[in-house]
């Protein structure tokens, strides 16, 4: 009699099969994790892939970014042709100066730039400046005149003079009762920003009533008669109770003040030298430089590989 036993029911996986299943699972998990590592965000468990993110970026900013890169490369190529391409030493000097700023690291982090990005920006800026100032000589008198212009209180674009300024938060409403209600809430300890958002009809309400700093002499006296004198008589923390100005009811709180400042000449001499040379270079050589740059572009056509960008960029080419 045959004594062998017959088996019934499903046969379980062999050890080799189990190993194979585990291996497949590990590989699948690795591939999934690799793909997930490229995700930019996850919304309700759905990944926003880096590929999709980059595609959207290109749709929104691609043409503008490409045009900017081409323009910069043409400026660099033109500077190289004229023999004024910035040296690595000059670029590093500028970068080292930037690094000395106390908030350099934090600002770099906020901008999401790298030091390589900064090197590029510095190189382009130095190249453009060198092209404009090529062959330009400047006297001490011209440098001093540039400084005097840029410390003049009458120059709204003065680089080395900061006028006295005050910053205020306001609650502005056309209704006197609303202004009184807002005032009473402030008197009971309510936060100014909260009351401004609730009652102010000025656009600054979205920012808690905070206005940009107001420089002395810059407020329109016809539109706001007497208001500048009121503001510059206030100290930080002072508050003007409901007052009618130009048909509206105002509550004003002073939140900051800066004094008039003028940077001494010895601290900005190098900036004045460069500024004076740039101004003189633009006045005397601007048209010539522009024509030479156009000639350079016409003899260095840009090769656009992507069909969707072929109509964007004119002639001109990057430096080799």
- The number of distinct helices, counting runs of at least 4 residues, comes to 10
Q: Segments where pLDDT lies below 50 for 5+ residues?
A: 1-13, 15-36, 315-320
Strand order in space, largest sheet: 5-4-7-6
The pLDDT mean sits at: 86
Largest β-sheet summary: 4 strands, antiparallel
What is the N-to-C order of secondary-structure elements (H for helix, E for strand)? Answer: HEEHHHHHEEHHEHEEEH
What percent of residues are in strands? 5-15%
The total of beta strands comes to 8
Shape: extended
Percent of residues in helices comes to 40-55%
Structural class: alpha+beta
> What is the radius of gyration?
33 Å
Distance between the termini: 92 Å
Outline the structure in words.
This protein has a 4-stranded antiparallel beta sheet. A two-stranded antiparallel sheet has the order 1-2. The chain has a two-stranded antiparallel ribbon with strand order 3-8. A hairpin with a 2-residue loop joins strand 1 and strand 2 (46-49). The chain has helices spanning 15-37, 50-82, 88-99, 104-111, 115-133, 140-149, 176-187, 192-199, 227-232, 265-298; strands at 39-43, 46-49, 161-162, 165-173, 214-215, 239-245, 248-258, 261-262. Residues 1-13, 15-36 and 315-320 have low confidence and may be disordered. The protein is 52% helix and 13% strand. With 320 residues, the protein is an alpha+beta fold. Among the domains are: 64-147 and 268-302, no CATH class; 164-259, Chitinase A, domain 3.
Summarize this structure briefly:
By secondary structure, the chain is an alpha+beta fold.
């Amino acid at each position: 009699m045959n004594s062998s036993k017959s088996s019934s029911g499903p046969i379980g996986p062999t050890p080799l099969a189990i190993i194979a299943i585990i291996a497949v699972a590990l590989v699948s998990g690795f591939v999934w994790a690799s793909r997930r590592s490229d995700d930019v965000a996850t919304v309700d468990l759905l990944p926003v892939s880096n590929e999709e993110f980059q595609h959207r970026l290109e749709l929104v900013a691609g043409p503008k970014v490409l045009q900017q890169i081409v323009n910069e490369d043409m400026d660099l190529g033109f500077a190289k042709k004229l023999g004024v391409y910035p040296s690595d030493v000059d670029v590093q000097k500028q970068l080292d100066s930037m690094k000395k700023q106390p908030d350099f690291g934090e600002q770099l982090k906020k901008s999401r730039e790298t030091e390589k990005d900064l090197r590029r920006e510095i190189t382009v800026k130095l190249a453009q400046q060198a092209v404009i100032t090529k062959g330009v000589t400047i006297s001490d008198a011209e440098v001093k005149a540039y400084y005097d212009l840029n410390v003049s209180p009458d120059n709204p674009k003065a680089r080395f003079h900061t006028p006295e300024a005050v910053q205020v938060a306001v609650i502005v409403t056309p209704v006197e009762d609303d202004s009184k209600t807002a005032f009473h809430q402030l008197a009971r300890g309510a936060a100014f920003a909260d009351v401004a958002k609730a009652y102010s009809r000025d656009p600054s309400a979205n920012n808690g009533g905070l206005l940009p700093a107001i420089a002395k002499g810059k407020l329109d006296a016809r539109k706001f008669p007497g208001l500048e004198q009121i503001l510059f008589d206030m100290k930080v923390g002072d508050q003007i109770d409901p007052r009618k100005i130009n048909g509206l009811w105002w509550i004003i709180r002073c939140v900051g003040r800066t004094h008039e400042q003028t940077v001494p000449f010895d601290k900005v001499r190098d900036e004045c030298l460069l500024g004076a040379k740039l101004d003189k270079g633009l006045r005397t050589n601007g048209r010539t430089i522009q024509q030479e740059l156009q000639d350079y572009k016409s003899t260095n056509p840009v090769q656009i590989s992507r069909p969707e960008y072929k109509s964007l960029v004119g002639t001109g080419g990057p430096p080799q």
